[in-house]
Amino acid sequence: MGKKSVHSGDSEEDLAAKIRLLENELASLKQTLHAKRTVKQLQNSSFGITQIIDEVPTPASRTTLVGEGAIFDESWVLDTLKFLVKQQRPNSIQQILAKVGELLALREIALWSRDNHSNTNQFQYQWCTADLPDGTRSHLQNPAWLESLLQPDSASLRQLQEGTPLEVRATDHDMADVTLGLRTQGIYNSLLIPLCEQGQVRGLITLHRDNPRTWHPKDNKALGSLLAWLFRFMQQHEQLRIMVDRDTRHQYAMEATNDGLWDWNLLTNRIYFSRSYLRMLGYDYEDLPGNLDTLRDYFVHPDDVDNMLVEYQTAVENQRESLQLQFRMLHRDGHELWVNSKAKLFEPDHNGKATRCVGVNTDITDFMSSREELINAKAQADLASRTKSEFLARISHEIRTPMNAIIGIGYLLNDTQLDEQQQSYLSSINSAADSLLQIINQLLDFSKIEAGRVILEYAHFDLDQLFEKISRLFEISALHRSVNIIYDIKPDVPRFLRGDASRLSQILSHLISNAFQYSNTNQVVVRVCRRAQSAKQVMLEFTVEDSGLGMTEEKLAHIKERLVFNHNAQDHEKNSYGLGICSHLVHLMQGDFAIESSLNHGCKITFSASFERSHFGEKTLVNHPRDLNNIRVLIVDDNSIARTIIASTARSIHLQVDEIDNPVSAIERIRQADNLGQPYHFILLDYRMPNMNGLQLTGLIKTDRTLKSKPHVFLISAYHRDEISSSDPNAILVDEFLSKPVSESRLFDAISQTIGREQLLQDISPEITITNEALELLENCHLLIAEDNVVNQQVIRGILKKKKISSVIAANGIEALKLLESSSEIFDAILMDLEMPEMDGIEATQCIRAGHIQQLQDIPIIAVTAQAMRGDRERCLAAGMNGYLSKPVNPELLYTTLADILRKKKISNGNTQH
């Protein structure tokens, strides 16, 4: 144990080690300062040299005796450094090595760098005599002989780390193994002079002789000093090479790009323009000076130059780091081009304001032209759509007004005392009116999906308990005393779900009841399997199947037709659980509904429904009907009858439909519509067509790179998906497979599901929502009805009276304003017709909302109009109306809409009073 220091507590050995470390650092610092001073002196002195130094200086000892046989001294080192500084060429090192080798009568001399982390040596430079064999030269260039000598922790390496040259002689018996390889190459005397930094060998100079001549210490010292300068010179040239490579790489990159680079000195207003910058504008490199005047007077469009300069000046004043501009520039031949300019601000002064700005200009002329063309095309399309909408709105108004009277009077007449014959006549009138209303809804743009008013409940339920309750229901029924319900529930079907259990039970109960009543069998099989799933939802498929009498094709087609035309209509018959109601509920559950049957082979009804996974706290999802007026569809089928039927089916749900009879013309029509900015959203293809089938056409559509907006492809075929996909690889490109015949409900379901997965289609096909509300809010309400048609006045008053709602009539907007202003009666809301003489509903609403009637500017206003066009709802809401109803007025929808608005008014008044 060493003695402890009184002051620090360290041992004397530790203190001695620290002192040696400080001495090494101090020596390294002195050497660095000395090197800097020497380089400066050499650079200064080199300016005074009048003669050009073309070769390495010869030491004075060749003419004057230095003493004791030494050849080199410090003065020769300084002269050699002047040679290096003056020449500044990498081969200068080779010349110096040659001079040393000749003067010392060496066989070979080499320069090495060393990596102390990996204990490896890298060969750098070499000089050797002309008669040195190639094998010897290669052996001395190979670092293996050097690494065998300088093993880690060896005495040789430690000697070099101390800065002492190492002599290696063939006569040294303790180094015989190391020198064996050298001796075989005729090398008998070697010297290693190290370059050390902080106790580590950074580089070496190795000298080899074929004679035992001794190495003079003064030569060793001089060569050690020279070695340090040679390494600094090598490092300088390596950094210079890296910089040159970087500049060359940058220059090549700028030449290869179409973007223009510029560098603006904000103090001198000198600007560097790259060759690609000038090439973009049609100029050569030295045509114009690089300054702000050139940019302002020649390059930037005169209408944009002031704004551009203001933007840059503002960025500098606000000390922004970057900015991006779009402006016009002028080509040398006079035409304009648009550029997107991205710039960064650098080198702030003492006030923090940038003094240098560097940026890149990108030519965006083609992009700007395309954008302008798209804007013009959209304006033309909007004008055409607006003209069509105005025409159809007028037709809608003229047809719906008398229909409102027919249906409304029939609704009121049904509550009077009628004999059996009158009741039959009234039933026929109502049936004919309903059928006519269906036809009107098919011809006009407002989809009959708007009639859906069922709001699904979302609650957690147990599927096993649901089936158990259904079983009990039929077991205790006297009519089905001996029934047998078999449940085939697949293992992957979840037991706990979140959805409307009562509606699901309603559907299953009705289907099972029908199977027992009409199939003449006492056994029904109910199957459940998982169809699809996502992170939040699961789609289940239910099948109710019997093996009874079945149905004829005609009867089956009749039932399917009833489902197609009534799945959105309310069923007022005694059997409120009809197939139409079931189909409608299934669609609300985001599923599909199908019936299969043949005579004497039973009947199978399959439907699917979507449920949420049973995780508490998740949001409910309700699938509301959608407005499909803006969805464009192209139908491709070579069979004219099939094509006409499918087109009629598509139009019945208010899709915009075009037809074409062959695939070649179809692809051209799709491209034409895409180029006009009116792309098709869906393509319905027949599978079997001559020359080119539906899958081949699907491949052409999906791989057409010219289409900016690719449509969804539905393949119509009597074959199943798996039968087609196994034979043709294009099947994976089909978005949906539709089986023939394509029913309205099936097509609607497929399109609705696709719309639900794509935001763009959702934007042009908005949801139509109807709020369900308690009708007790309506009792004893007092309304103002603004309606010019006497029959409609009677219908609306009668509908309101059924719910104990009193009303006052105004024949137009002016009368309505006068009543509101002069009457002492308090109105809870206004039913406002849009089309009225003297002052229409929109203008009257605007007057009320503007405050022309004191204290009534917030009164609820509901639009009642025969115009059922898309856009009218938005126009009414923009005028300040609170709701929107289309004629013929649906009583239930009127009640729920009015109750919802009154509820909101009540809540708002309560918050205000509070």
Strand content: 15-25%
What is the count of helical runs?
28
Looking at the structure, what is the overall shape? Answer: elongated
| First and last CA, distance | 88 Å
The chain-level structural class is alpha/beta
Q: Would you report the number of β strands?
A: 27
Which stretches are low in confidence, meaning pLDDT under 50 for 5 or more residues running? 1-10, 45-52, 63-67, 442-453, 476-481, 565-577, 615-625
Rg of Cα set: 48 Å
Mean pLDDT, as a whole number? Answer: 78
* Assembly form of the protein: single chain
Largest sheet: 7 strands, mixed
Binned, the helix content reads 40-55%
3D architecture notes:
This protein is an alpha/beta fold and 914 residues long. The protein is built from 28 helices and 27 strands. Helices cover 45% and strands 20% of the residues. The strands form 5 sheets. Strands 11, 12, 13, 14, 15, 16 and 17 form a 7-stranded mixed sheet that branches. Strands 2-1-5-4-3 form a 5-stranded antiparallel sheet, sandwiched between helices. Strands 7-6-10-9-8 form a 5-stranded antiparallel sheet, sandwiched between helices. The chain starts with 11 loop residues before the first helix and ends with a helix.
